[in-house]
Design brief:
- Chain A: Keywords: ATP-binding, Cell membrane, Membrane, Nucleotide-binding, Transport.
- Chain A: This is ABC transporter ATP-binding protein.
- Chain A: GO terms for molecular function: ATP binding.
- The complex is a heterodimer.
- By secondary structure, chain A is an alpha/beta fold.
- In chain A, 31% of the residues lie in helices and 23% in strands.
- Chain A has a domain of 177 residues: Rossmann fold (3-Layer(aba) Sandwich).
- In chain A, helix 6 links the parallel strand 7 and strand 8.
- The longest helix of chain A is centred in the last third of the chain and has 18 residues.
- Chain B has a 6-stranded mixed β-barrel with strand order 2-3-7-4-6-5, surrounded by 4 helices. Chain B has a two-stranded antiparallel ribbon with strand order 10-11.
- Chain B folds into 2 domains: 187 residues, no CATH class; 240 residues, no CATH class.
- The relative contact order of chain B is 0.18.
- By secondary structure, chain B is of the alpha+beta class.
- In chain B, strand 10 and strand 11 form a beta hairpin.
- Classes of the chains: A alpha/beta, B alpha+beta.
- The interface between A and B is medium-sized, with 40 and 30 residues.
Chain lengths: 261, 466
């Protein structure tokens, strides 16, 4: 919708094919990041090295201020490291300009936010449709995929509802459908259960896990929610901007989910 | 059924904070109405002025070269002797024929009118007319003013009658005889009670030309009109004063005298070949003036006439001066309204960007480029601008219809006659199109900076915005 007249960039943002790929979805090498306040630099990441496999649900875990959201932002290509290399889906994203990064996010990355971040003037259907409009998916295909996505997150009956007419859990389901509907190779979620009660949080965790398994997508979540850690394939603890040795979490029984696309 | 189209998102965003949008819209609407009503009023004044001028002097005049600049006091030297041939050619010309409504001769002269035996006189600007043609010219009303055509006071078919401007009639103490309004009572009326005697030669000349200053059989007063002939000798004609009329401007009323063309020609040329100082052309539409002028110039060149073509704007410079005055006032008002609109829309859009910073971050994270964000906010500013100008246009039209049907009148500066107070918005599209484009452009310009700022917010900062 917003890109109607934009010219696509050369395929520098083209990701490597993920199915059956042996390459990691994300490779972080020697990444530093500091935030500047006036003349004061506050280091947030201090030389992080990390490799996240495709087809896995990974959790960046740590207390507030540990740097997990900053690392997630870097992986999501919405921020740039001060130093270090970052390869996402086979693409060295440090080489991309702002428009190329935008296109890369549009084509390969889905986001789920703590505050849902739905567009309040759009219905649930339209919110889920939006990424497909950006990607210029044809109307018939859009309709099919949006309905399937909403059906999959259990909100087919609420597709005409505006975000204000939905509960917190329902909003997060719409957000998850929005992230999955374009079939990205990488989905990032920042504290997706932080604003939900435990029951809704558990349901959202189960939904994300099921969808991740069904679509074999690399799913990276920043959270200190124990439920999420319990569902993760891999947990990466972060403390004071440094990554601690990863934990392999026990995987629970798979949650079935209908086909999305 | 559910799908978004490219207008849906900005439209819904515009309606998100309805109160704020409404306030901004009201600013635009009031601005648009003010521009259109004032512009329409200025148009009406200028159109009214043009109507008055064209009714009196036509659109174009053929004159001897330099008569306008040098010869207005010398009708003898700058007369058009073969004016009948010129008129015939103009009337028969295939290009001019469909454009021209009236072709009529005019002889302007300077003279003295008075009752020399009573000791009252004054200089006059005399106009030798064909009264019937003048009456047809006064029917010209291209802009459809709600006025009835006012016939010239000079009667048709009366070769000895003249008409005066009401100022001349007052000066010549003809208030009662001609029912002139606003005549002070108790002013000295004549020298007959003991003033200085009239020179013998002029008195004798006057008496030789006519039976004296006694009233005509119909009770109308008579006057002597004195002018210089071709050889420089004075010539006097005794004429019956049929009526006094107002020409709308006091300076003209104070010197105006209309007389039959033949009388004027006799006065100026005596027994010589009669001439005129102008051949007047009134067109059906002012829009044809350039075509008509070009054709006349071609005719002049082809026939070798020693003539030039002058339009009503050259002949009556106050017309363009008035237009320029209104244009400068309109420009000033546009500047004021434009400034208000600029800051109003800019303030609204800046607030919108601030309130929707997180949303900007969300859209950017989904892959919307900076350009897309800028276009979205620019589009919202344009939507507000379009809504405001369209609604403003609609309301301005209603206001104009109300004003035009209210029957208001007013007296313009330098005029002594009331004219209808109307608003002309639709004669040309310039006013509506110009004001809409101007305010739309201002709305777009007002949105540029907020839109640019929105596009430049780093994604992470936008997402963190509280």
């Amino acid at each position: 919708m917003n890109r109607t007249n934009e010219t696509r960039q050369p395929p520098v943002g083209q990701a490597e094919p993920r199915a059956g790929s042996s390459r990691p979805a994300v490779i972080v090498h020697g990444v530093h990041k500091a935030y500047r306040s006036g003349t004061l630099d506050t280091p947030v990441l201090r030389g992080v090295d990390l490799s996240i496999e495709t087809d896995q649900l990974s959790v960046l875990s740590g207390p507030s201020g540990s740097g997990k959201t900053t690392l997630l932002n870097l992986i999501g290509c919405i921020d740039r490291p001060d130093r270090g290399d970052l390869t996402v889906l086979g693409q060295q994203v440090g080489r991309l300009n702002d428009d190329q990064l935008s296109d890369f996010r549009r084509d390969h990355i889905g986001f789920v936010f703590q505050n849902f971040n739905l567009l309040p003037v759009l219905t649930a259907y339209e919110n889920v449709e939006y990424p497909l409009l950006l990607a210029r998916v044809p109307a018939d295909e859009r309709k099919r995929r949006v309905k399937a996505a909403l059906d999959q997150v259990g909100l087919a009956a609420q597709m005409r509802h505006y975000p204000a007419q939905l509960s917190g859990g329902q909003r997060q389901r719409v957000a998850i459908a929005r992230a999955f509907v374009k079939a990205p190779a990488l989905i990032l979620a920042d504290e997706p259960t932080a604003n939900l009660d435990s029951e809704n949080g558990a349901a959202i965790v189960a939904l994300m896990r099921a969808l991740q398994r069904q679509h074999n997508v690399a799913f990276v979540i920043s959270s200190h929610d124990p439920q999420l850690k319990a569902h993760a394939d891999r947990v990466y603890p972060i403390r004071d901007g440094r990554l601690l040795p990863p934990e392999t979490a026990p995987v629970r029984a798979e949650t079935a989910a209908p086909s999305l696309v | 059924m559910f799908s978004l189209n490219s207008l849906a998102l900005p439209l819904r965003n515009v309606m998100r904070n309805r109160r704020r949008t409404l306030v901004t819209l009201i600013t635009l609407i009031v601005g648009e109405i003010a521009l259109l009503i004032f512009g329409g009023y200025a148009n009406a004044v200028v159109d009214g002025m043009q109507t008055g001028i064209v009714q009196q002097i036509g659109h174009l005049q053929l004159q001897r070269k330099n008569y306008f600049l040098l010869g207005t006091g010398s009708p003898v030297d700058y007369g058009i002797a073969d004016y009948r041939q010129v008129m015939t050619e103009v009337e028969r010309d295939p290009v001019l024929k469909p454009l021209v409504q009236v072709v009529t001769p005019l002889l302007q002269l300077q003279g003295i009118a008075g009752d020399f035996n009573r000791g009252v006189s004054r200089t006059v600007a005399g106009y030798g007319y064909v009264a019937g043609d003048q009456n047809r010219m006064r029917e010209w009303n291209e802009y459809r003013f709600p006025i009835e055509p006012k016939k010239i006071a000079l009667p048709e078919g009366q070769s000895d009658a003249v008409s005066l401007g009401i100022g001349v009639a007052r000066t010549l103490r003809l208030c009662d005889a001609l029912a002139v309004p606003n005549c002070p009572k108790g002013e000295p009326t004549a020298r007959s009670s003991g003033g200085a005697a009239m020179p013998d030669d002029l008195g004798a000349l006057s008496e030789a030309e006519a039976a004296g200053a006694r009233p005509a059989a119909d009770g109308k007063p008579r006057l002597d009109v004195l002018a210089a002939t071709a050889n420089g000798a004075p010539n006097v004609i005794n004429a019956r004063v049929a009526a006094a009329e107002s020409l709308g401007v006091k300076e003209i009323d104070d010197s105006y005298m209309a007389m039959p063309l033949e009388m004027a020609q006799q006065l100026v040329y005596g027994r010589d070949r009669p001439q005129v100082t102008s051949v007047v052309l009134q067109l059906r539409s002012t829009a044809d003036i350039d075509t008509a002028r070009a054709r006349l110039e071609a005719l002049i060149k082809a026939r070798g006439w020693d003539l030039e073509v002058l339009d009503y704007r050259t002949l009556f410079p106050a017309y363009d001066q008035t237009r320029a005055l209104f244009a400068s006032i309109f420009g000033f008002i546009l500047l004021l309204i434009g400034t208000i609109v600029l800051f109003s829309v800019a303030n609204t859009m800046s607030t919108v960007v601030m309130e929707r910073t997180v949303e900007i971050g969300t859209l950017r994270s989904m892959g919307v480029r900076r350009g897309g964000i800028a276009r979205q906010f620019l589009g919202e500013g344009l939507i507000i601008g379009a809504l405001g100008t369209v609604l403003g246009c609609g309301l301005a039209v209603l206001c104009a219809l109300a004003i035009n049907s209210a029957g208001f009148t007013w007296t313009p500066p330098n005029s002594i006659e009331k004219i209808p107070l109307v608003v002309h918005m639709f004669n040309t599209p310039d006013l509506i199109v110009g004001s809409v484009v101007a305010l739309l452009l201002l709305a777009a310009i007002s949105s540029l900076l907020p839109a640019y700022r929105a596009a430049r917010i780093p994604v992470v900062e936008a997402l963190r915005h509280v």
